[in-house]
Design a protein that fits this description.
heterodimer; A: mainly alpha; elongated; B: 73 residues; mainly alpha; 5 helices
């Protein structure tokens, strides 16, 4: 994987815009001014959390009071995280954008954890017959992709580490959302993504070595 | 698109992809650049590569931009 070039977000503190500077001053200060700023911050984070859970709601099996409860939890946890990291705000963005990011990440994490409340969710089932459907393969073309699926299955068994295999099966075969797997494995998004990234790279190399990939390019 | 190329596309990885950790670290800066009409892809090509490949991070950026575009903001 690549990396963000150091110069792009180095450790120099940018000059704060007036609104951001006011937020930092009030939150870093004390007394009634800080209390008022915390109240304003919580109102703002709650509004963003509610907006974000509503935006995602059509794709979730959560609604009504449960959805609002999730928004409240996300806002409260974002508030805790943000106030604990205030000294890390370097003014590279507006303060509000930086603050909103905490809420968005909290919403994602909580939706990931909520996924496991579904009664029919299983982590380790392994049904390879579902893969063509998951990949959007056309049943009418089964003769064309059958060998490819068999080769992929073999590559998953032969070439992946047990951890890579578990992550690949969970996400690709069982359709478990990445953030849900993060919660279940008590991991983090970067680690699970990297595991899947490495698995995809290994599988591509393995299938290419066996003459399966670049098939489309060769034929066109 | 044939099934072969669909699978090939799924397995394809971009060596510039910085991963979730760095993309999440810089997402607020990236979002402000998007909203300002600047070119975050040119400034952060590795993050842009990641956002093209990672559904959860792309979803978070979408949510962040939606919050920034909220009329309350």
């Amino acid at each position: 994987m690549g990396s963000v070039e150091p110069a792009a977000h180095g450790d120099t503190t940018a000059t704060l815009d007036p609104e951001s500077a006011e937020w930092v001053r009030a939150l870093a200060g004390g007394g009634a001014g800080r209390e008022r700023a915390l109240l304003r911050l919580h109102e703002m984070l709650l509004r963003v959390a509610r907006g974000e859970v509503s935006r995602r709601a059509p794709r979730l099996s959560i609604s009504g009071p449960e959805l609002d409860d999730l928004a409240h939890q996300a806002a409260a946890d974002a508030m805790m995280a943000l106030t604990g990291k205030l000294e890390q705000f370097r003014g590279e963005s507006r303060f509000t954008t930086w603050a909103y990011k905490f809420v968005i990440f909290e919403v994602s994490g909580k939706i990931g954890r909520h996924y496991w409340r579904k009664p029919d969710v299983r982590l380790d089932t392994e049904d390879w017959e579902r893969l063509p459907d998951r990949m959007g393969f056309d049943p009418a073309h089964q003769a064309e992709w059958h060998d490819l699926i068999v080769a992929l299955h073999r590559a998953v068994d032969d070439d992946l580490t047990p951890h890579q295999r578990r992550v690949f099966i969970a996400i690709v075969l069982n359709g478990i959302p990445l953030d849900a797997l993060v919660a279940e494995m008590d991991s983090n998004r970067n680690a699970i993504y990297k595991t899947l990234f490495d698995a995809r790279r290994k599988l591509a190399a393995s299938l290419a070595a066996r003459g399966y990939l670049n098939h489309y390019a060769r034929r066109s | 698109m044939s099934e072969w190329s669909q699978l090939e596309r799924f397995l394809q990885t971009d060596p510039e992809d910085v991963g979730c950790g760095e993309a999440m670290e810089i997402m607020h800066v990236y979002a402000d650049l998007v909203q300002a009409g600047a070119d975050p892809e040119a400034r952060y090509p590795g993050v842009a590569a990641h956002l093209r490949a990672c559904g959860p991070c792309a979803e978070d950026l979408e949510g962040l931009l939606a919050a920034l575009n909220d009329p309350h903001d």
